[in-house]
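Lab manual, section 2.4: Encoding a predicted structure.

Procedure: take the sequence of the chain (1085 residues), apply the prediction step described in section 2.3, and record the output as structure tokens. A sample record is shown.
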Amino acid sequence: MRTLLSLVGWLVLGVFVWAQDTPYRLPEVYALRGATIVSNTAPPIENGVLVVRNGIIVAIGGSETPIPADAEVIDASGHTVYPGFIDAFASLGMPAQPNDPAYASYERGNTHPNAQIRPERQATVLMQPDSAQLARWRRAGFVAAHIAPPHGIMSGQSAVISTGTGTPAELVIVPQVGVVLNLRGRGAFEGGGGYPSSLMGAIALVRQTFYDAQHQMQVWDAYLRDPAGKPRPAMNRALEALQPVLRREMPVLALANNAEDIRRVLRIADEFNLRVIIVGGLEAAKVADELKRRDIPVLLSMEMPEPLRSYDPLSPPTLTSLRNRALAYQNAAILHEKGVRFAFTTEGLGDPERLLRNIRTAIANGLPKDAALRALTLTPAEILGIQNRFGDLAVGKTASFVVVRGELFEPRARIEFAFADGKRFKVSEASQTASAPATPAFRRPRDWDAENTASLLEASCCFHHAHGSTLTHMHSHDHEAHACDAECTDHLTAGVPPRQDAPREQPTQPSDQRTESAGASDETPTMPRVKLTPIMPPPADEHNTWLIRNATVWTMAHDKPLPNTDVLVVDGRIAAVGKNLTAPPNARIVDGTGKHLTPGLMDCHSHTAISGGVNEGTNVCTAEVRIQDVINPEDVNIYRQLAGGVTSALILHGSANVIGGQSIVVKWRWGKTADEMIFKEAPAGIKFALGENVKRSNFRTPGSTRYPASRMGVEQVIRERFLAALDYKRHWDEYRQGKRLLPPRRDLQLDALVEILEGKRLIHCHSYRQDEILMLLRVCEEFGVRVGTLQHVLEGYKVANEIARHGAGASSFSDWWAYKIEVYDAIPYNGAIMWERGVVVSFNSDSNELARRLNTEAAKAVKYGGVPEVEALKFVTLNVAKQLGVERYVGSIEVGKHADLALWSDHPLSGYAVCEKTFVDGVLYFDRERDRAWREELERERQEYLKGLRAESVFDERKREEPSARAPAEPQPSAPTRFAGTWRGTITGGDPLPPEGVPFTLRIRQEGNQLRGTLETALGTQEFSIAAPDGDTLTITLEVGGMSATVSATITGDRLTGTVSVMGLSFTIEAQRTPDSVATQARRH
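Recorded output:
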């Protein structure tokens, strides 16, 4: 009886173990018989045999392959055996929260002072694998995973582990693979204050960290060779952990998804001669040629959007969002075609079981099945250095494979068994319902319907963090010092429609049922081949030889424009200016009759095309950060400014710091990379700032201790930093003279300040009041420094003589005043008065929108102060060139200068003038005729994408409904009765609106089947015209202050309620219809 009970107990235990997805039996030998065996390096074997002994594959062959007598034989008929999958990058088993106690040991001792730099963390020490998590990965077919610590910019060292069972130490396959680098690791998840708060700050921190690691290596080598007379150097374990990276013994695993972030990583790799592996790579196809040339592999995220089933025709998907979708589906196929090595990861997916579904989508969009299998198995093994044991089915390799019912990439395929480290695991129904702890994410999932223009998203962040009235902020040029933390990325921007396909909750059901139901619905999207070119047209070619005939030419070298004059451009430079010029054989002719030709306009104060934040506002001095690192060449504002005749701009850090970041002068070469846009001949620059923005007394947050809090404190910051730079320079001079035995630490912040003191870097200083302007000039003169430009300088008219005597330029607004206390004394005659006193004056935009109209800004100098027309036009051409130190190259139409030109339909200072062509270096970057034709092509492309997605307008869906299925419609009042009239109400919603809200008036009238009217606010009156809706809901999209606003309202009798959305922010609106307005509208109707 006791024997019988024992037998029953063992049977019960066996069933329990089976249900828990653990090895239900551990024999020495397995033999799979009757399966189709698929490997990466040999032809498939039908009705094959695979034998495993002691966790190693010992035989593979056809049905005649001998099966050992002691083997457990598994009948695998109707199944296919594949190499086990390797997750190329995941956070499996990592502590989910950055404050987890597991991280605490790395916060003690001689670590890096910035908590974002923790390369010494090791995944093998931190990992806490949960059995349910491991089971979840096995169900998805993974037998191994490359895991890495999240949280931070340099978050630690990765490792490869098995997804089998055992202690954490027993799971380790490779203890150290590489160091994780995530340039967007700060802010995307960590939130809160602290340096850095911007992308350019993160890059500066990474750059400084690598220089510090090099310095530690250098001084220790020198000390160990000969310690006599040398102080023992400090040892930092974070910097020590980077030594293998600097020696190229260990790669950098760089999380980078958009194309520009990948290029930024490659620039860092070039600077320090690093080995790099790209992780994520959602836009890797855009840089595939470069990745192939450098032989840089990609651990590819397969994050994809949900299918777009329908859309609102009143707010249809933008072409950018559709291209983003197409690229997500085709990214892997393009990388394969280009010969880039890539391996699939679950990074960004959340659920590893979604990976196969998304791979099937990639296959439907051009990825060969054999390439997909290789990216799941052999390629990750090769990249991670475990190809001798994993990644394929071959004698001698570890028995890590999956047994699939059906063919792997068919929708109804189901993984039934997984062998990991020779242990057999059955994917059981019971184990699939077990919950597993969430794995920490390295980044936010991508918003596929957001525009692909980082600077626009960041503009919404600045709006979100504004203080005071929304209406005031819409017109304010100031950039607040607040960091744009994680919540900002949730907001869409002006002109971007709401999401068309919010993420859908996945049904809770077994994976095989999910797979089969998904296959039955056949919703795999396929799209036309994505275009990787910019949305707006780049130059048709690089042709740069032209003859512009018979135009009125504003040379800036003459007191008046030259009528009926020709300009010859040869190889991108101005070759001749005169009448009846002869064109060389390769010149293209432009008829300028009746048109005006000017130098390309130049903007001396711009924040266009900056990614990841305009300010690094965490420190009072951030001279180490570089705007050059974060230029986004795909920002559509570049093209729009070309359409306004702008060819060059000074791109500045914001005004949150006394000493901000390093500026860069660019030429708007649309379609080129960020590096190719840099104006190479321009002197280096840096942003300084004075006044309220930097002392921040009007918006100091509780507990804030950032110095300074006064204007006299601002002066002391400048003086102290200059003195520190002089000391730093002296230390280097002493080392070069042999007076110091060990080299000083290179300090990127002080490097930039030394360049100022040596006259190699120009100061461009945000300023308003005359007292602070004089203070800056006085301090700079004390140190022998000349200020390049005073930016804004709205009280410059009070101290114009002093500015002229110092030799600083003045880049001002044309007619902005009284938008905050410190500019109450500003006057529109400021520019003219300074010009009369001999100051080199320019007018700038400080605005993506205003930059498109710099010609009419210049015209205001004529209106306010009577500046002669040619001199006024210099305010946006030659004077800017002088302020930026590039007058030898641009700013006027003179022989030998760069052919940066704008051709206008009318007098360039006229509000009726339209820019028809814009040339940069003689290349036609904007042509209005080509632009019109291009827009038609873009609409055809958009329709092709929608056709490929099989997405329908919701209006089309309604038409397809059976009439019998529709409920009888209730009698509705006519459109005039429902909507027409005058509605008066208030917009409310808390910060940043004032407590009392903002009043508005909405006037609606009926004209046929159209509703027309106006929305009146403090910003003015905006007109609209929409189709009359069928129901009681009204949606109006209009432009308010240069931004898109969407009003969504419901009418109930004479009451209107709803929301207004501006740049991703939503506010409440309530209004009442005024008496008699309905009757009046009805009579008119």
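Check your result against the sample. The chain has a mean pLDDT of 84.
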